[in-house]
Amino acid sequence: MGNLHPDLQSKNQLLRHLAASVRGNDYERFCTHTQMGATVFDTQTLASILNTELPLILDAKHIPNLIRFIVGEDAYIDTVRSFLAELAQVLSVEGMRLGVDFSGGEADGTPYMLMTAPTAARTEDLYEPHAWKQCLPYIRVASLN
Asked: Which secondary structure element, helix H or strand E, spans residue 96, and what is its range?
């Protein structure tokens, strides 16, 4: 990979390190690599790496760790609630109805949104891939009967 532009090579290396930190639930390592990224990239590029690119290379099961690492444990549940409130607003604007096409719930203290399969398919088309990926751990697809 010697022919890669140095910035792209640095970005890919940072992404690999950050992903490994999240997968390994290693907050200290995540912080170290985020700080290193801040010295190499401008704030906007680092934010894009963390919020747009990193979610796409992680399995959905690791997204909760990523969100916890970015916002902190104390703000985690409020952040998830905020994601879901925005999602509910988008669904309502798109003509989907609370209690028919989607509803909310909570399991083990973590909020989630229950959607019908057609609603989930429509919703995925409304979101950028990275944003949809960040919502996936908090979406359950089932019948709302």
From this structure: none
Structure tokens at 137: 């751990």
Q: Are 88 and 123 in contact (CB under 8 A)?
A: no
Count the neighbouring beta carbons within 10 Å of the beta carbon of residue 17: 17
CA distances, 61 to each of 11, 24, 34 (Å): 23, 12, 21
Name residue 6's amino acid. P
pTM: 0.87
Q: In the predicted model, what is the mean pLDDT of residues 92-112?
A: 93
The answer to whether the beta carbons of residues 49 and 11 sit under 8 Å apart is yes
Q: Are 96 and 119 in contact, with CB atoms under 8 Å apart?
A: yes
